[in-house]
Write a structure and sequence with these properties.
With about 450 residues, the chain is α/β, with parallel strands linked by helices. It has 15 helices and 19 strands. The model has no long low-confidence stretch (mean pLDDT about 95).
Length: about 450
C-alpha cells in the first residue's frame, strides 16, 4: 500500500456548495476534515448560479403559512421525471432538504429566505425556492468558506484530484497534483467526491448527451468529470448520464441568465421570423432544444415593464439592465426591425396573443389571470445553453457510492455534480433550483455518513 504524506479522517474533494456543506456536516459530527479544491479560489458551478435551492417543509415556509412537506416534494420529483428518478435518492433529498436548510440557517447562520417572487411553476406545486436576498451563488460560496475558516477546517487550494487509492471496496487515500506538477499523497478514513459534473468535458457531453453537444456551456470550466471518471475506474456504477440542466434564456452575447420569472409572469419567446414556437412555461430545461432549433439557434424574450418590475429584485435583471441587454421596442415596426422579422408576421403573433389572454393558446399555455406583454415592449436576445450535468456516480440514500455489481464502497461518498441526481435520465426531469438543492442536501448527508465511516464506534 502506498505511503502517504499525512492522513485525515475525512477528505472532501470540491470546494463548491456541496463540498463545503459536506465538510461542515462532517465537522459537526466530530470528524477532522480536509477540503481539497482545484482552483486558486472556490467558485465552481455554485458561484455561477442564482444561489437558490428548493427545500420542502422548512421553517421559512411554516412561518409564511405555506403548506409543503417532504412527501409533496417527493411526489413532484416523481411526476416531473415521469417516474424515472431513483426513488432512494429522491426520498433522501425530499426528506433531507428541509432539515438541511434549517440546519444551515440555525447552526451555520446562512441567511436563507423563501423567494416569494418565484411562483410555483415548472413542476413545483409549492413555493419552495430559498435564497439569500440580494446575493447569488458567489456570495454563498464565500459565506460557506468563511464558516469553514471559523471552524478551523483546513482547505487545500490549487490541488487537483488525479488518483484515488483503493483496495476493493475500501478507499485509503488520494493523490493530488499542484499547478507546478508536484504530487502529494493524502490518506483518509473516508472520501467525499463533490468535484463537479462534466458539462465542460466536450467528449463526455458528446458521448452521453449528443443532442446538447452544440449548446453553449454556461458553467464552470473545471467541470471535467474528474470525480466521475476516477470513481468509474474503481468500479463504481454510473447512472443518468444523459441528464442535465439545459436553459433556453442565456442573454446573447452578454452571458447573463434571464430569470424564469420573466416568462412565468407573462413573457413570451419569438424567433427571428416573429413567431412563437413553444409553451414558455411548460419545461424550464426542455425549452433549450426548441430555442436551439430556431434560425441561428437564438430567440427573443419579449416582456414589458410590469413583468420586469415583478422580477426586478433579482440580481440577473439588474445585470441585464446595467449591461444593456434589455432593449426597448415602442411599436410593431421597431420590434420587427430589431429581430429581423416581417412586421405583418409580428403583428399577427401579438394579436393572437392578445386574443388568447385568459384562455389556453395554441401551444397549450394556460394564461389564466396572466396577460401577454403590452407595448412598449422590452426585448432580450437569448440562446440555449447547458448549465450543469445531473448524471454521475450511482449512490444510495446515504450518499454512499455503489459499485457496478450493486455492492457499496465502505467509505466512498459522492454528491453535487459528481453524483447521480434526481432528474431522471434526461433534461426533461429537471426542477428549478434542484441542482443546488440536491447538492447541499447530499452534501450534508455525505458529510454525516463519511464521519460515521471514518470514526466507527
Amino acid at each position: 500500500m502506498r505511503e502517504f504524506e499525512f492522513a485525515v479522517p475525512v477528505v472532501v474533494v470540491g470546494g463548491g456548495a456541496c463540498g463545503a456543506v459536506a465538510a461542515l456536516a462532517a465537522d459537526a459530527a466530530g470528524a477532522e476534515v480536509l477540503l481539497i479544491e482545484q482552483d486558486a479560489k472556490p467558485t465552481g458551478t455554485t458561484a455561477m448560479s442564482q444561489g437558490l435551492m428548493c427545500a420542502a417543509g422548512t421553517a421559512q415556509q411554516a412561518l409564511l403559512g405555506i403548506d409543503d412537506s417532504a412527501d409533496q416534494l417527493f411526489a413532484d420529483i416523481v411526476a416531473k421525471t415521469r417516474g424515472q428518478t431513483d426513488p432512494a435518492i429522491a426520498r433522501a433529498i425530499a426528506d433531507g432538504s428541509g432539515p438541511c436548510l434549517d440546519w444551515l440557517s440555525a447552526d451555520i447562520g446562512y441567511p436563507f429566505e423563501l423567494d416569494l417572487g418565484f411562483r410555483a411553476a415548472y413542476g413545483h406545486s409549492r413555493q419552495r425556492l430559498h435564497g439569500w436576498p440580494g446575493h447569488g451563488g458567489a456570495d454563498m460560496v464565500q459565506f460557506l468558506h468563511q464558516k469553514l475558516a471559523e471552524r478551523g477546517i483546513d482547505v487545500l487550494m490549487q490541488a487537483r484530484l488525479v488518483e484515488i487509492i483503493a483496495d476493493g471496496d475500501i478507499v485509503y487515500g488520494i493523490i493530488v497534483e499542484r499547478p507546478d506538477g508536484a504530487r502529494e499523497a493524502i490518506g483518509c478514513g473516508a472520501l467525499i467526491l463533490a468535484c463537479g459534473g462534466f458539462a465542460a468535458n466536450h467528449a463526455m457531453v458528446s458521448a452521453h448527451m449528443p443532442e446538447a453537444a452544440t449548446a453553449r456551456h454556461n458553467g464552470h470550466e473545471g467541470n471535467r468529470g474528474d470525480g466521475i471518471r476516477l470513481g468509474a475506474d474503481l468500479g463504481a456504477a454510473l447512472a443518468d448520464m444523459g441528464s442535465y440542466q439545459g436553459y433556453a434564456m442565456l442573454a446573447d452575447p452578454h452571458g447573463i441568465t434571464v430569470p424564469p420569472g420573466i416568462l412565468v409572469e407573462g413573457g413570451v419567446l419569438l424567433n427571428s421570423a416573429g413567431r412563437r414556437f413553444v409553451d414558455e412555461v411548460d419545461d424550464i430545461a426542455g425549452m433549450v432544444h426548441p430555442v436551439m432549433a430556431q434560425p441561428g439557434g437564438t430567440a427573443w424574450v419579449v416582456f414589458d415593464a410590469a413583468i420586469e418590475a415583478l422580477c426586478a429584485y433579482t440580481l440577473e435583471v439588474q445585470a441585464l439592465r446595467d449591461t444593456g441587454a434589455i432593449r426597448g421596442a415602442e411599436n410593431v415596426g421597431t420590434l420587427a426591425t430589431m429581430i429581423g422579422a416581417d412586421p405583418a408576421v409580428v403583428a399577427r403573433t401579438l394579436a393572437e396573443l392578445e386574443a388568447r389572454a385568459g384562455a389556453t393558446d395554441s401551444f397549450g399555455r394556460v394564461w389564466g389571470k396572466d396577460r401577454p406583454p403590452q407595448f412598449p415592449l422590452h426585448v432580450i436576445k437569448v440562446c440555449g445553453a447547458i448549465y450543469h450535468t445531473q448524471g454521475g456516480l450511482m449512490i444510495d440514500g446515504e450518499a454512499r457510492v455503489v459499485r457496478t455489481d450493486g455492492s457499496r464502497f465502505a467509505n466512498l461518498f459522492a454528491g453535487g455534480g459528481s453524483a447521480r441526481g434526481v432528474s431522471g435520465p434526461s433534461y426533461w426531469g429537471y426542477l428549478p433550483a434542484m441542482g443546488l438543492g440536491s447538492a447541499i442536501t447530499l452534501g450534508r448527508i455525505a458529510g454525516m455518513s463519511a464521519a460515521r465511516a471514518a470514526m466507527p464506534t
